[in-house]
Amino acid sequence: MDAVARLRRWPGLLAGGALVAGGTALLGPGPARRTGVPRPLSCVAVALGGAIVANELTGRPVPFLRWSFLRLLVGIRHFARTGQIGDGREEAFARYLVAHARPGDVDDAIRTADEFCRTGRILAAVGDEKGPILERAVAAAHPHRILELGTYCGYSALRMTRATPSDAHLYSVEFNAANADIARRVIAHAGVADRVTVVVGSLGDGGGTLQRLRDDHGFSPGSLDLVFLDHDKDRYLADLELVLESGWLHPGSVVVADNVLVPGAPAYRAYMAEHEGGLWHTTEHPAHVEYQSLVKDLVLESEYRGG
């Protein structure tokens, strides 16, 4: 393990150590009476802290016991509001990838991104299990024009670009300008900047972003082959309806949606179930939340059959 990797483990080691120390201190009869903390809760704190410390010290840590994963859960509301976890991991990711991935090599960029997420700090990206599901859906669709909602740090853009023909182009919409800048740097380092355009905005901004996609990027009726939804889960159905109202899809267009189970997009899933065999044909791909194997998730792959 190199020095940088060891440094990235320190937050977890400190957090786990604090849980062990605090829980042990509360196990005594005096502190337990004064604080009112139940003894079983103190035992849980000691056990969890010990597991986190042991986990961080191993060469291949269990993701859901990592402080990085727990910190992501703590910051999930901040992420929903701002598009970032709040601890600087997005910028750290960009710097790590540029420093460690071979320039102009999209495969190595993806490998390096997965390495960062497994051994450094987990990102709220599609990840190494659902990433191949996305790539297979993209490859099967043979798209030439792709719309992504939710660029984040550019990881899924790398996955999709790797799976598309060389003349395909991805337009990725991201509401957080700092994330857009990070994604552009990552995409450029991977050597695919000529195939990806990152647009700062949101389809739900009153029509401004929709108009820019039409005027500046040539979106027109029937021109869109694939949509990837990985942004605000509450906006999945509303934004799909805006795309439909714009007429950009054609029969055979594909829409892929991540995180349908966790954090969850129940209205979107219900809509696809309601229109199954009519406007849409949907395949549900069971998977897990990013970079762990405990929490289950779903990726929906839906083919548009309307006119």
Automatic annotation (TrEMBL):
Pfam families: Methyltransf_3. It comes from the Bacteria. Keywords: Methyltransferase, S-adenosyl-L-methionine, Transferase. InterPro entries: SAM-dependent_MTases_sf (IPR029063), SAM_O-MeTrfase (IPR002935). The keyword Transcription does not apply. Gene3D superfamilies: Vaccinia Virus protein VP39. PANTHER family: CATECHOL O-METHYLTRANSFERASE 1-RELATED. This is O-methyltransferase. It comes from Pseudonocardia yuanmonensis. The lineage of its organism: Bacteria, Bacillati, Actinomycetota, Actinomycetes, Pseudonocardiales.
